[in-house]
């Protein structure tokens, strides 16, 4: 009798083990659509995320370089993509169309998270990467004209030389958080015929070659360009904004391990690391996947087993 009981228990345990082994892995069953805008930084963040999640066993659909930031946002709201990186200031001012500036970055993140939860989008805790829009000049030209602030530039354009040439990304031109908003706050205007629509990276580079007198973009994009004078925002036009990853709530619900794994990745995306990655990506004939894989390996996020409490080390 005892032998029969033991055999029955053994069969039961075997059945349970087989059932567990046959249970489908949700990482394989639930594909994640990772999207990014076409900017250099967005493509880089997208590839870092894709390599990381694929190494962890997730099924990934690559929709990086989808288009503008607005296109990515529309796709996220519609459920056509599942995950993207964005700055809280962009989400607040552009995607949620809120014109009330919030200067405290923690409060800005909280408000963005609260509003987007109603749209089925969860913003995970921000990375240690912060940006503010910046208007820059070449240092020598700024010193020659004694310009250190945007107010001084506005006075210079209004009273001395209205023909100041501007380089700006097209998506940062006719927006409240871009040139139009800046002009309203500081009471001046760039002549439309003297505005060149180029990427932020190219605009900052063209300051050095003299094709533009001013360039507008983000501190994260200007940081790698030498010889620039960032004009002080003395009227607090641009609040601080943090980089965070947004994920559809339904995906986080289906993949319970995804959130802590993305939080670990966000901790590694520091201001210094992102600037270093951007510098590497600017080199000719380089693959973003190669840069991403090296970075993730250096951070200890792929290539070896991690504990749940492990903190990524700084990139050497």
Strand content: 15-25%
Principal-axes shape call:
globular
User: Can you write the helix and strand succession as a string?
Assistant: HHEHEHEHHEEEHHEHEHEHEEHHHH
**CATH domain class of the largest domain:** Alpha Beta
Helix content: 40-55%
Instruction: Write down the overall mean pLDDT.
Output: 87
Task: Tell me the CATH topology of the largest domain.
Answer: D-Maltodextrin-Binding Protein, domain 2
Please tell me the CATH architecture of the largest domain by its name.
3-Layer(aba) Sandwich
Q: Supply the number of helical segments.
A: 15
| Gyration radius over CA | 24 Å
Low-pLDDT residue intervals, each spanning 5 or more residues: 16-20, 305-311
| Major sheet description | 5 strands, mixed
* Strand count: 11
Strand order of the main beta sheet, please?
8-7-9-6-10
Could you characterize what this model shows?
The protein has 316 residues and is an alpha/beta fold. The protein has 2 domains: 27-129 and 241-298, D-Maltodextrin-Binding Protein, domain 2; 133-230, 3-Layer(aba) Sandwich (D-Maltodextrin-Binding Protein, domain 2), CATH 3.40.190. Helices cover 47% and strands 16% of the residues. It has a 5-stranded mixed beta sheet. Strands 3, 4, 5 and 11 form a 4-stranded antiparallel beta sheet that branches. Strand 7 (166-168), helix 9 (179-186) and strand 8 form a beta-alpha-beta unit. Helix 3 (40-55) crosses helix 15 and helix 5 crosses helix 6. It is globular and about 75 Å long.
Defining key terms:
five-stranded mixed β-sheet; alpha/beta; 16% strand; D-Maltodextrin-Binding Protein, domain 2; 316 residues; four-stranded antiparallel β-sheet
């Amino acid at each position: 009798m005892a032998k029969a009981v033991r055999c029955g228990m053994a069969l039961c345990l075997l059945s349970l083990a087989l059932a567990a082994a046959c249970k489908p892995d949700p990482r394989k069953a639930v594909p994640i659509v990772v999207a990014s805008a076409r900017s250099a930084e967005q493509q880089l963040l997208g590839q870092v995320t894709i390599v990381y999640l694929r190494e962890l066993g997730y099924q990934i659909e690559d929709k990086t370089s989808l288009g503008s930031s607005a296109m990515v946002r529309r796709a996220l709201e519609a459920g056509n993509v599942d995950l993207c990186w964005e700055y809280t200031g962009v989400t607040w001012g552009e995607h949620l169309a809120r014109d009330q500036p919030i200067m405290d970055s923690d409060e800005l993140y909280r408000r963005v998270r609260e509003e987007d939860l109603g749209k089925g989008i969860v913003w995970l805790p921000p990375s240690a990467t912060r940006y503010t829009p910046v208007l820059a000049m070449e240092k020598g030209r700024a010193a020659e004209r004694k310009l250190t602030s945007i107010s001084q530039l506005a006075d210079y354009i209004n009273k001395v030389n209205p023909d100041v040439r501007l380089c700006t990304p097209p998506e940062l031109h006719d927006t409240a958080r871009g040139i139009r908003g800046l002009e309203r706050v500081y009471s001046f205007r760039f002549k439309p015929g003297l505005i060149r629509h180029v990427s932020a990276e190219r605009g900052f580079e063209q300051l050095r070659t003299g094709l533009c007198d001013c360039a507008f973009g983000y501190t994260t994009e200007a940081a790698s360009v030498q010889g620039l004078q960032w004009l002080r925002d003395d009227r607090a036009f641009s609040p601080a904004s943090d980089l965070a990853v947004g994920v559809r709530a339904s995906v986080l619900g289906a993949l319970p391990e995804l959130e802590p794994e993305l939080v670990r990745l966000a901790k590694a995306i520091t201001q210094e690391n992102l600037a270093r990655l951007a510098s590497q990506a600017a080199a000719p004939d380089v693959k973003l996947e190669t840069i991403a894989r090296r970075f993730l390996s250096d951070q200890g996020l792929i290539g070896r087993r991690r504990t749940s409490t492990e903190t990524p080390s700084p990139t050497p």
